[in-house]
Each structure stands twice: as structure tokens, then as C-alpha cells.
Specification:
The protein has 231 residues and is of the alpha/beta class. It has seven helices and twelve strands. Bound molecules: cytidine-5'-monophosphate (C5P). The site of cytidine-5'-monophosphate has 18 residues, from α3.
Length: 231
């Protein structure tokens, strides 16, 4: 595999659903901040040349020293007011830094710091799928729960068939030009990068996701990570 891969890690969220104890990416699991677990996981996949982390503006220096002290090598840039702005800034920094490097970047991964325990095999599977020619790739899991639509009063209006629904994880992988064009085109609210790519009419493929790539959002998720996920 000859693909030059960079990984962007949006880590500039405030972590309010985790209790607002500061940026979520700095919350420790087994004494190690989530962002360190996330960067180590990406680097241990063996296919990532560079990791760019978007940190909260107020915590750029802290995140830089936390990562450096842990030996988790990454370029840290200031994130933005929402996730897309954080990804956009990390992408700009990655492309600027790589402008004179050889080989050129052929795969860009976007990976939430909150999915800190994603197995390296999943990072490789997404990278390989993009390197093999897919313009955009997302890891997915089948939806286990029954899904219902509700109205403004939380009354059920419909049971949605889950057969063709998938829960989407990260890392999401892209050909660099596709991600750049998707961000240039922009758009309204979206919760993942592939959503922007769909809007510019580029097909998004899937690879099987992994339960360990769960997003750590709530105190319950954190307890699960402490109990079963941390290495
Ligand atoms: O809030 P949520 O869990 O959906 O955030 C997903 C990821 O996006 C997290 O890793 C978070 O740190 C990141 N994020 C960001 N910049 C923001 C908001 C969220 O990098 N302004």
C-alpha cells in the first residue's frame, strides 16, 4: 500500500454531554486523555503519515503538550465554532504542510477524538478502500434498535424499517480533492463529513464498522470505555 494518508482529528468540542469538565478530548480513560488514545490508535494502524488535531482555541497549547508528553506525534491547530469549521481548519493545515511532500496525499481520514478506541484494523480498512479507488468511505453498523419517528410532543408517528438503515462511525475516508470540494460547496447543518460529500453527488461507500469505534458522548459511554475498551 503506497497511499500517503493524513488523518484529521476534530477535538475542539466542549464535551457538555460528558458533564462539562472541560474539553471532552482531554477527559482521561485509564489516566490517559481521549485525544491521546485517538492519535495513538491512528498512528498504530501503520498507514497514517501525519495526524492533525483541531483543539479548542483556549486549549491549543495544553493539547500540544499533552500529546507531546505522551509521545503521540501530531500537528495541533486551533479548531472552530462547530465541527465542520474544525475539520476545515485541520484540512487546510494538512494540505499546506504536505504541499511539497512526496508522495502527495492520496487519502484523508476524518476521525472524531471521541471515537478514541477505534481498532487499527478499521483505520486500515477505510484507508485501503479509498486507496483502491473509492472517493468516499464510511464505516457502518446495522441498527439494532427498533427506530420510530415522533412528533413535537414525542408521540410516535411512524415505525421506520431498519433494514436499510446504518449507524455511521469514523474514521471516514476521502480522496483529498473530494473532501476539499465538499467543504468548498458547504451546506447547512450536517453531522458528518460524508454528508457534505453526498451533497456534491459523489458516491459514498461503506465498510463494516466495529463496536469499539463507539463515540464517547455520555458518562455511561465513559464507564464502558473504562471497563472494556481501554488498552
Ligand atoms: O459533539 P460531538 O460529540 O458530535 O463532536 C464530535 C467531534 O467533533 C468531537 O471529537 C468534538 O471534539 C469535535 N468538535 C470539534 N469542534 C467543535 C465541536 C466538536 O472539533 N467546534
Amino acid at each position: 500500500m503506497n497511499a500517503a494518508t493524513v488523518a484529521l482529528v476534530p477535538a475542539a468540542g466542549r464535551g457538555e454531554r460528558l458533564g462539562g469538565r472541560g474539553p471532552k478530548a482531554l477527559v482521561p480513560v485509564h489516566g490517559v486523555p481521549l485525544v491521546v488514545h485517538a492519535v495513538r490508535g491512528l498512528l498504530s494502524a501503520g498507514c497514517v503519515r501525519r495526524v492533525v488535531v483541531a483543539a479548542p482555541l483556549s486549549h491549543v497549547d495544553i493539547m500540544r503538550s499533552v500529546l507531546a508528553d505522551a509521545g503521540a506525534e501530531a500537528l495541533v491547530v486551533a479548531g472552530g465554532g462547530d465541527r465542520s469549521e474544525s475539520v476545515r481548519r485541520a484540512l487546510d493545515a494538512a494540505l499546506a504542510e504536505s504541499a511539497d511532500m512526496s508522495p502527495e496525499i492520496s487519502v484523508v481520514l476524518v476521525h472524531d477524538a471521541a471515537r478514541a478506541f477505534t481498532p487499527p484494523e478499521l483505520v486500515r480498512a477505510v484507508t485501503d478502500a479509498v486507496a483502491a479507488g473509492a472517493p468516499a468511505v464510511v464505516p457502518v453498523l446495522p441498527v439494532a434498535d427498533t427506530v420510530k419517528r415522533v412528533d413535537a410532543n414525542e408521540l410516535v408517528t411512524e415505525t421506520v424499517s431498519r433494514a436499510d438503515l446504518r449507524a455511521v462511525q469514523t474514521p471516514q475516508g476521502f480522496a483529498p480533492d473530494v473532501l476539499r470540494r465538499a467543504y468548498e460547496a458547504g451546506g447547512d447543518e450536517h453531522t458528518d463529513d460524508a454528508g457534505l460529500v453526498e451533497r456534491i453527488g459523489v458516491p459514498v461507500s461503506t465498510v463494516p464498522g466495529h463496536p469499539a469505534a463507539m463515540k464517547i458522548t455520555t458518562p455511561f459511554d465513559l464507564a464502558v470505555a473504562e471497563a472494556v475498551l481501554a488498552p
